[in-house]
Each structure stands twice: as C-alpha cells, then as structure tokens.
Automatic annotation (TrEMBL):
Residues 44-114 form the YhbJ barrel-sandwich hybrid domain. It is found in: Membrane. Keywords: Membrane, Transmembrane, Transmembrane helix. Residues 119-212 form the p-hydroxybenzoic acid efflux pump subunit AaeA-like beta-barrel domain. This is HlyD family efflux transporter periplasmic adaptor subunit. It is a single-pass membrane protein. It comes from the Bacteria. Pfam families: Beta-barrel_AAEA (PF25963), BSH_YhbJ (PF25997). The keyword Plastid does not apply.
Amino acid sequence: MRRMILVPLLIIVAVLAIAGGVAYYLYNNYLYYSTDDAQVTGSIVSVSATSAGQLSALNVKQGDRVTAGQVIGTVTPPNNGNAVRLTSPIDGTILQVAAVPGQTVAPGVSLVQETNLNSLNITAYVDEGQLDNVKIGQDVDIHIDAFSDTTYTGHVQRVVQATAGSFSLMPTQDNASGNFTKVGQRVPVVISLDGNTGKNIVPGLSAEVTIHIH
C-alpha cells in the first residue's frame, strides 16, 4: 500500500521539477540574453612617419603611457632637412613598437601602435533573432575569461548596422550554385565597460555578456 502511494508521489514530484526547470529556463530567457561570443575591443591607433627618412630617435617602448601631443620620436629626411617629430595622437598606452632607431622609414608605414586602456569596450555578437530585444542603454553583466572572479558592468552603446559576416573577405556561401543553406547571422553589439577594477584588461581578451533585455 505504501509503495502504491510512493510511486505516484515520486512521479508528481518529478513532473513538477521538470515543469519548474522549464519555467525557470523560459523566464530567464525572457529577462536575459547571454553569449560567450564576445571580446574586449579598443581603438588601436598607429603612428607613422609623414615623410621618408631615417628614424633618428624613438623615445617609447611597449607598455609606456603617453599623452596626446607628446613627442615620441623623430625622423631625419635624407636631404638633411629639418627633423620631423613623431607625436602621439591620443592619451594612451604603447601596445607595439615596430621600428628601431637608425632604420630607414617610409611614409604611412606603422612605427608604433597605441590604445587608450581607459576607454575599452566589449563587442558581443548577438543572434539576429534576438536583435529586436536589444536596445541602447540596457544593463549588461560582463565576465572576462582572464579575470573570472570579477563581474563587470556595462551598457549597450551601439548596435552595428551590419552582420559580422558582412565584414568577411570571403563569402560565406555561393548562392549561384543552387546549394543555398540558410545560416543564422550574428550582429556586433558594442557595450561599454564601466571600469577595470585595477585589472590589466587589454584588447582581444575573450568575454561573456548577459544583456538585461526586459
């Protein structure tokens, strides 16, 4: 008798547990959209010579902080004219130095790359089916893989007006062949990063975001 009562009770409990899990999943999906297809991004600026000549001085190295207008090097023209000063266009941190003093440089060739580590963003790639739910200003929870013990906050700043595939150099499929296969597209969404909490966050780090869509 006791077993006859226990079996239906266990079935009811199991059904309720499944129903509760489904309800939680649907409710969570209603409130939030999450993706781990995201990374830290920042504007990387190149400094190059405006004229050909010899790089007579280079005053910075990787990791140095510079200010806008700071002289970071000089180029001496081959005709012994006045030296041309290389200046930093932004307040930032030197990411890469691709030249050494004494070498010959050409106009337009990048000598130094820098970025402002205090003005980083997160670029997340959102499924096109969720695009209608993503709005400017929505709160975002951010986890950066390199610092998994820290939760960052941000806000949706901009939805890029093109899919990620539009920026690819190679087409994703050949529609002319007649073998068309519909592929779900992803759209880049730019998210602010509200502070780095003292961590060494740099462009390119992988991240996961949760957007509060409702």
